[in-house]
Amino acid sequence: DGGITQSPKYLFRKEGQNVTLSCEQNLNHDAMYWYRQDPGQGLRLIYYSQIVNDFQKGDIAEGYSVSREKKESFPLTVTSAQKNPTAFYLCASSITTDTDTQYFGPGTRLTVL
Amino acid sequence: AQRVTQPEKLLSVFKGAPVELKCNYSYSGSPELFWYVQYSRQRLQLLLRHISRESIKGFTADLNKGETSFHLKKPFAQEEDSAMYYCALRQGGYQKVTFGIGTKLQVIP
Q1: Residue B8 and residue A50: Cα distance in Å, rounded?
Q2: Measuring CA to CA, which of A41, A56, B51, B54 is 20 to 30 A from A86?
Q3: Does residue A33 belong to the interface with chain B, where contact is any CB pair within 8 Å?
């Protein structure tokens, strides 16, 4: 599996600290996404970006922030304002066509202590 | 707002039995429907999409606009089909994708 990477695989932080999750892709995809995966709730969209320097809020953007300064990178910051940050975070990318599919990274499991 | 419903969190079937994973959606426009699969210790990946009208690993799914459904079917389940399956919907022409909560398929030997 290559193409889209997330690091680290496991991340621990103390409550009240901001933390940034990395997502990199070398697939030359324009669109990138961040999802949160919780048991019994499936995948919920946090933020997505269709092009460099542009991004939109998803369904659960509160307490999160993103940037898209480079096509290859779409880091997600989990801020102290996020009330329940412990979760599994998935990054994905896709080509911007009408029929594209999403390619997912391996995920980062964040635990806030 | 678009919505995807997968009514079963867990579906257990015996090897060789038929499988049907249900997916219903609500969306007023022209949807694009997908099935994604996540095998144990592997990444989430695309299984199939309705516009391709293809069969992947023996699975098929037909979009029924009248019933707003996109059920995933396979005539004979195999042990290697055990995985988490997610139905997803995308608004035509937009990048935002909505996922269902997922159904865990367990194939019993």
Answers
A1: 32
A2: A56
A3: yes
